[in-house]
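In this supplementary section we document a worked example of the pipeline. Step one takes a protein sequence of length 339 as its only input; no multiple sequence alignment statistics are reported here. Step two produces a three-dimensional model, which step three serialises into structure tokens for compact storage. The input and output of this example are shown verbatim.
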Amino acid sequence: MKTLLAVDVGGTKTELALLDLRGQSLEPGYRSVFSSAEYTGLEEILKKFLADSGARSDFACIGAAGVVAEGKARITNLSWALDEQILAKKFAFSKVKLINDMTALSAVLSSLKSDDLQTLQQGQEQMEGAKAVIAPGTGLGEGYLLETDTVFLPTGSEGGHADFAPVNDEQMGLLKWLCRNSSPVSYEMLCSGMGIPALYTFCKDKGDISETESVKAQLADVQDRTPVIVNAAISSTPCPLCRRTLDLFLSILGSEAGNLALKLYAIGGLYIGGGLMPRLAGKISFAHFLEAFGRKEKMEHLMARIPVRLIMKHDAVLCGAAVFGRRYFLGSPKTDLLE
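The serialised model returned by step three reads:
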């Protein structure tokens, strides 16, 4: 049996799974999740995973949260460096393929089932149109999928690092506030786990909404403030300041998602990935996101036609690495443009 090791290397966690390369199922034979910050690099995790599983793998496809070029990658929010040739030699893989994590997420879009998605805007899907994906997590990922009968082209990008463009007076004030300590200001600095604490502090400094004592006390005792803010915003008795923070977050994210969909002419749909957004489903309105997404001057009619779907599958990047790996290592009429 030929086996594939699929890997999702993120700034927060690294997830691995072994699969039968010849089958079509995305269900792994063995899988595990590691906290990335607790390890010095992927090699340490691979050594433990393969020892624990008692298995070996013929091939490995690794989705990495960072720039991938010439078989090498550096993780954006970790001090990890990856190299296909070094990993293949050290762990006796026949071949290793490094791809951007957003390439992996883009690769899985057509394999997602209805239960894996939540529709935010129905739109009018065009089956052969480009599919765009935006994913707020530790950072902000962006990518797309082009798929026809003869082409399968999932591609990640570093669009999250593009310059933030404010669209109203409040966001103009936010940009000026941020520029006191950092310039330039990217969308990732706002539309990610690292951005939510900054938005909270901005909203607090404006003075329109007071900080609650309970949230203030919780924030004083934690290093990662994002979970506290999110949990307080979506609780049964939400903190007004935390809720305002998430509304601003969703507005900025919606605006950038609309930018991405316009530039790609994504009539196949806009997909929202990442670990943060599914937590908000059913607990907070996405009206601010959709309003900002559709507010595109002369193109508002086009934006209304684009389906908007939230990816609820928690291991979508890992599954995307498996999808990409199968096509890449087995070969397919649709792999002409993968390289």
